[in-house]
Amino acid sequence: MKFARIFVLAIAVAAGFIAFRMVMMSGGNQSEPVVVQAPPKTQAESEVLVAAKDIALGSKLTEDDFSWGEWPESSIPKGSVTKESDPTAKEKYSGRIARAPIFAGEPIRPERLISTDKGFMAAILPKGKRAIAVSVEAETTAGGFILPGDKVDLILTRKVKGKGNEEDVVVSETILENVRVLAIDTTTAGEKDQKTLSPKRTATLELTLPQSEVVALAQQVGTIALALRSAQDSADDADSDTGRRRGVSYVKYGVTSQVGVK
C-alpha cells in the first residue's frame, strides 16, 4: 500500500516536471516588454508685445494698452516686437496713434502705429486724399446714426430758379457716393464710444481733390445731406450707379457750368 502511494506521487512529480519544461520551452517565462515613452519636447516660446484690449482706429496709445504674451517662436508673425529684441517697447510705443484697428491679443506691429508731429487727421489720411468739413444736422445725417468710420452718399438739395413766370423748384441729386466719414465734430472713429454726438455737427469726409472741389461748391449752392450706406455696400470697391452724372451745376455770367467728378 505504501509503495502504491509513492508510485502515484512519483508520477505526479514527473508530470509536473514535464509541464514545467514545456512552459519553459514555449517561452512562457518571458515577461512583456515595458515601453518607456520619452517626455514630449517643449516648444520654445518668446514674449511678444500684444494689445491688452481692443484698440480702435485713431486711439492714442498708453502703456496700459500693451502687454507681453507668450508666443511659440515658430509661429511669431513677421514684424512683431519681442521682449528679447526690444524690452522697452511698451514705453517706446506709448503715445503713438493707431493707424488701423487692433484687437486684444493681436501682436503689435510698428507700421500700424503713427509717430508724427503733425495733427492726427493729417497722419491718418491716405496718400492722395483730402479731408473736408461739411456742416450737417441730425435730420440730414440719418437721424444722427452716422458715426465716424461709416460710408455715406452725399445728396445736394438746392433751389432752381424758374424760367419766366415759372415758380422756383427744389431739386435733389446725388453728387458723391461711398465716401468715408473720418470724424463728426471732433469725434473720430477711435472716440465714438466715449463722446456724445450733438444734433448740430460738422462731418469731416475723406475725399480726393476733385471731390473736395465738388463739395466746396455744393455747400455754396444748397444743403448737403448724408445718406448712410449699408455694410454690404460700404466696401472700397463697392459698385456705384455709373449711369448717373455726378457734379454740381452753377451759373456764372449767365452761363451754366458743371463741376464733376472723374
UniProtKB/TrEMBL annotation:
SMART domains: SAF. It comes from the Bacteria. Residues 46-114 form the SAF domain. InterPro entries: Pilus_assmbl_Flp-typ_CpaB, RcpC_dom, SAF. Transmembrane segments: none annotated. This is Flp pilus assembly protein CpaB. It comes from Roseibium aggregatum.
